[in-house]
Each structure stands twice: as structure tokens, then as C-alpha cells.
């Protein structure tokens, strides 16, 4: 299991993947808004999306797991 | 002299130069490590070098050169001093002669005013020899004292090939740059075994003090190399940007155009202030092809620091990276910037700031981590730097982020802006919310409310229009994006003979 974690505190504004999607290392999976900036969050490893732990509009803290990859 | 005596000497030299026992050489191979003398061959331009203390601790019989080679040779034609641990001799550990040799090569480098390299691969002190090598005036503490004294005077470079344990871990800590070999290099005060015994923590060496951890998390490492050859070649490249000592100008290389596939600057920087872009693309479009040497590439990536050449001349670049964490400044990125600015300023390397920064991070986590204290380090290092410094507002500079990126009040030689640049206490969205929050809440009709917000944002945009700022002499020039490289070359050329004493005093009280 390879988790994708929020890189900084902010609000989820865009979820770019769906459960079951194949993602590659370095691919943007979620976009946060923080400090008025769009902050893309990337997968660190290849994998298949097993779970998306957040909804659009959720506040996340630095380090919170947002997507679970398998 | 008899032939016999000469033969004996040559035999003994050859014996010592072989280092430790065969089985330790076999272990090196297993670990993908090179023998210390092979590392030196890769480091120096040619085989010739001067070596002192080859017979250190010769009488002990089993401690060739006392586990360290101290030598003088040439790198890129420049004389350099080197100390290099030999891990085939008692795991590169330090005895009394080892320490004395290291101290002497430091003293030599200081007198000759040449760069000093530390090729570290050592298990630490020989506890059995502690009285002779640990506490005294010329004990191991003296090595660190000398490093601090030499800091900023001559370049000090560490290549970490293996462990640097306990006290020994301070050798890299006091160097200007630490190049670490992935998987093999490690740095720690207490080993995993000690951590388990003393505090009950179970942890692997890689997690506790591995090269990758230090280059990406702790910030103790600057360059992560895949193998020893790559690490040595990085050290040689790095040295190419530095003068022999702080009184000399950095060496000028052959001028090159930017890489031919670099994108146009106007295409790299989005008009939308809030959209991410990759600052590396802008750096590629500005600097000589292949000249960018990134420092702390894996650490605090929201800020990019690195050496480069502009028309052949070395510069140091400090650039926000909007692609990572929105380019916001954090505790670690502020530290990273402070250290890099100090490095460039010490060795007469001009500084280029590429600003696209929404500000310093806010929120509980960073306030508790002392973001203000860390931000102050960056701002003070930048303010103190007296090398030629140019600030370019690429897209936006808000709040204290503007100050940290060498804006007008901090006496850059010039503060330039690209045509889309915005400079403000905060961005339009935040500002309108801050000023009109009550009014916005009071408007009940959503459409009317949105129209009000848009109107106020537009007014705010007009207030921070870059031509208005230029008209008020806040920026020194607005530069068409595709002319930026030419402009920077011309300006750094003009500022080349800048001489400035920042402030007369003993030293500042550092905001650490």
C-alpha cells in the first residue's frame, strides 16, 4: 500500500483520479488550494487507486493521507 | 645510500599504500565502495599528488597511514587539500595520528588558501585511544574548531562515502556542501544499536541516518549521488564555481547559450497568478546550457537553490517553485535559502532571486515550528549579502515573501519585474476578503455579492499594477520576458566590481 499524503495544509478543490485508476509516480492526483494557490499533489509511486479519503471542500493537514494506492 | 635501504623504503611505501588487510578490501567491493587511493585518483586531475604522514603509526604495524590519507593535488587545475579516511584500516576510525594528520592538512589549506575536501568514511573515534585523540588541545575537537575558523575563508567540501558517526558527524555539518552516496553514506550521533539501548527505539540505519533521509528530510545532505563515481564527479563540478579562497573571484567558464529546447518565458509563466508552473523551466531558459548545479534538490523543494553560469560567469540562484506547495516559504525552505545565500556571499558569487511567492506559510503547525524565527534567518542572510544581487519579480511577491526575495528595501542592485508581476501585502482575493469581509457578508443577494467582490478585486488589481509600481520607482525596470537573460548578463557585468561593507561591528546577533 502506497499512500498519497497532503504536502501542506489546505482545502481539497479538485480530485483528478477515481477508484480503480492506474496512476504513475509523479502524476498529479489531487489539487489543494492553500495560500490562494493551486497546489497539485503527486503520487510518489505507481499504483492503482484503492481509496480516496477526501471530498472536494475538505480541509486537510500536512501529512494527512488523501489517496490510498495499491 | 645503499640500494638495499632504498629497496626497503620502496617496499614499505608500497605496503602502506595498500591500506588494510585483504579481507577489508573484499568487503569494500561487496559494498560497491572504492579503495581510498582509487577515490583520490578519480578526484585529482592526474595521478601526481603530494602526501604527508604516509608512515603515521607505522610502528604499530597494522595501521597503515593511521587510517587516513592527507594529500595535495589538482582539481580542474586548482590546487586543493584533501583528507580521506581509509575504511580498510580499522573501519577508518580515528587514533591520535589520524587526528593530527587531519589538523595538519587543515592548517596547510589555511596557509595556502586553497579548497579543502573531506572524503569521509569512518566509524568514529578509537575509544581505546581516547586520552590521546579526544579531549586535548590538538584532539578531535580541534578539527571542528578549525572547520569553523575556515568556514567562508576557503571552500570546504565533504563527500560522504560511508558512516560519519557521533562526533565525526560534525565534519559534514561544518562543510559548505555535503555530497552523499546513496545507500552507503550515513550520519548520526547515536547508531540504531545505541538508540535501542539508550532510548528503546527500534529503527534501521537508513531510516535513522541514511543518505536519502538526510538529503530529503533533515537537510544535512546537499547532493544525493547514485554511486561513488557520481559523487566525486559532482564534487569536481561544484568546485568549478568557486574561487580558491574568499579574496578571489570565481572562475569564468566558457559561455554557452541556454539549452536549445528551452521554452519561451512568456509560455512558461501562466497569466493566472494562482496556477502552478515549473520554475526549473524558467531557470533552463535563462542559464547557460548544462550549467545548473542544484543544491538541496530533494529538500524543501518549494524553493530552488543552485549554482549556474550566465554567459560563463558563476551565479547563485534562489527561486520559488510554484509547482511545489504553491512556492510558499516554510521553515525548511527559509533555512535552505539562508544557508545558500551565505555560501554565495562568502565566495563572491552574485545572487539572482526569482520571485513568485504567495508569502510565508501560516497556520498552527508552522507557527509552532517557529516560522518567524526561521524566516528571519533568510531575511537577514539576504540583507547581509553584499555580492551583486538582482531580484526578479517573475509573477507575484506577496507579504514578507517580497522582503525575503531581495526586494527594493533590501538593497538589491536592481529589482526587476516581468510585465505580469504583482507586488502587494497580499493577493487580491485575500485582500478583498480582509478589507470588506463585513460588507461582503451583509450583501444578501449572491449575484450582487459576487459582483461586489469582482469590482473590489479589479480596483485592487489597479492599485498594484506593475506600471504604477514602476512609476513610483518601486521596481527599477520592467523587462520583456524574452529579453530577461540578456538583461541579467548586462546587469551582472555592470555590477561586477561592486564593493560594499554592510555594517561595521563584530558580528550580528544571528536570528537562529
TrEMBL record, chain A:
A family per Pfam: Biotin_lipoyl
Protein name according to UniProt: Biotin carboxyl carrier protein
Keyword Cytoplasm applies: no
Transmembrane segments: none
NCBIfam families assigned to the protein according to its UniProt record, in alphabetical order: PRK05889.1 (NF004547), PRK08225.1 (NF006079)
Entry keywords, A to Z: Biotin
Domain Lipoyl-binding: start-end pairs: 1-70
InterPro entries assigned to the protein according to its UniProt record, in alphabetical order: Biotin_Carboxyl_Carrier/Decarb, Biotin_lipoyl, Single_hybrid_motif
Origin organism lineage: Bacteria, Bacillati, Bacillota, Bacilli, Bacillales
Amino acid at each position: 500500500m502506497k499512500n498519497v499524503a497532503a504536502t501542506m495544509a489546505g482545502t481539497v478543490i479538485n480530485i483528478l483520479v477515481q477508484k480503480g485508476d492506474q496512476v504513475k509516480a509523479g502524476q498529479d492526483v489531487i489539487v489543494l488550494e492553500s495560500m490562494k494557490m493551486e497546489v497539485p499533489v503527486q503520487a510518489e509511486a505507481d499504483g492503482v487507486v484503492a481509496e480516496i479519503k477526501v471530498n472536494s471542500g475538505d480541509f486537510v493537514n500536512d501529512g494527512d493521507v488523501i489517496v490510498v494506492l495499491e | 645510500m645503499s640500494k638495499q635501504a632504498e629497496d626497503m623504503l620502496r617496499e614499505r611505501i608500497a605496503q602502506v599504500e595498500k591500506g588494510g588487510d585483504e579481507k577489508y578490501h573484499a568487503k569494500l567491493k561487496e559494498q560497491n565502495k572504492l579503495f581510498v587511493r582509487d577515490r583520490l585518483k578519480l578526484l585529482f586531475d592526474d595521478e601526481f599528488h603530494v602526501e604527508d604522514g604516509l608512515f603515521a603509526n607505522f610502528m604499530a604495524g597494522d595501521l597503515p597511514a593511521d587510517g587516513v590519507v592527507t594529500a595535495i593535488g589538482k582539481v580542474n587545475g586548482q590546487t586543493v587539500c584533501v583528507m580521506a579516511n581509509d575504511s580498510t584500516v580499522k573501519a577508518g576510525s580515528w587514533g591520535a595520528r589520524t587526528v593530527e594528520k587531519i589538523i595538519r592538512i587543515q592548517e596547510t589549506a589555511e596557509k595556502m588558501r586553497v579548497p579543502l575536501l573531506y572524503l569521509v568514511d569512518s566509524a568514529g573515534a578509537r575509544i581505546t585511544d581516547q586520552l590521546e585523540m579526544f579531549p586535548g588541545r590538538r584532539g578531535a575537537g580541534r578539527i571542528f574548531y578549525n572547520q569553523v575558523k575556515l568556514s567562508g575563508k576557503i571552500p570546504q567540501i565533504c563527500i560522504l562515502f560511508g558512516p560519519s558517526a557521533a562526533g565525526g558527524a560534525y565534519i559534514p555539518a561544518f562543510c559548505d556542501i555535503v555530497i552523499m552516496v546513496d545507500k552507503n553514506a550515513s550520519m548520526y550521533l547515536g547508531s540504531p544499536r545505541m538508540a535501542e539501548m539508550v532510548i528503546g527505539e527500534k529503527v534501521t540505519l537508513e531510516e535513522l541516518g541514511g543518505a536519502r533521509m538526510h538529503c530529503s528530510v533533515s537537510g544535512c545532505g546537499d547532493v544525493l549521488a547514485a554511486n561513488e563515481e557520481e559523487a566525486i564527479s559532482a564534487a569536481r563540478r561544484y568546485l568549478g564555481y568557486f574561487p580558491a579562497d574568499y579574496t578571489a573571484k570565481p572562475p569564468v567558464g566558457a559561455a554557452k547559450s541556454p539549452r536549445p529546447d528551452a521554452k519561451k518565458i512568456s509560455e512558461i509563466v501562466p497569466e493566472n497568478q494562482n496556477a502552478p508552473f515549473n520554475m526549473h523551466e524558467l531557470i533552463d531558459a535563462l542559464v547557460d546550457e548544462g550549467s545548473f548545479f542544484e543544491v538541496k534538490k530533494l529538500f524543501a523543494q518549494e524553493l530552488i537553490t543552485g549554482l549556474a553560469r550566465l554567459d560563463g560567469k558563476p551565479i547563485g540562484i534562489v527561486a520559488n517553485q510554484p509547482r511545489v506547495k504553491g512556492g510558499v516559504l516554510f521553515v525548511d525552505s527559509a533555512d535552505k535559502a539562508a544557508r545558500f545565500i551565505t555560501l554565495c556571499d562568502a565566495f563572491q558569487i552574485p545572487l539572482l532571486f526569482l520571485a513568485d511567492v504567495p508569502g510565508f506559510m501560516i497556520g498552527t503547525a508552522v507557527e509552532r515550528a517557529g516560522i518567524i524565527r526561521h524566516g528571519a534567518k533568510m531575511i537577514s542572510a539576504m540583507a547581509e549579502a553584499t555580492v551583486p544581487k538582482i531580484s526578479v519579480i517573475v509573477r507575484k511577491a506577496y507579504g514578507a515573501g517580497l522582503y525575503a526575495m531581495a526586494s527594493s528595501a533590501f538593497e538589491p542592485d536592481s529589482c526587476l519585474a516581468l510585465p505580469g508581476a504583482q507586488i502587494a501585502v497580499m493577493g487580491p482575493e485575500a485582500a478583498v476578503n480582509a478589507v470588506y469581509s463585513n460588507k461582503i457578508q451583509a450583501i444578501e443577494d449572491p449575484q450582487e455579492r459576487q459582483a461586489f467582490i469582482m469590482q473590489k478585486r479589479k480596483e485592487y488589481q489597479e492599485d498594484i499594477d506593475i506600471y504604477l509600481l514602476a512609476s513610483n520607482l518601486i521596481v527599477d525596470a520592467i523587462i520583456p520576458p524574452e529579453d530577461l537573460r540578456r538583461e541579467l548578463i548586462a546587469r551582472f557585468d555592470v555590477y561586477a566590481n561592486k564593493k560594499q561593507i554592510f555594517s561595521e561591528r563584530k558580528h550580528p546577533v544571528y536570528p537562529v
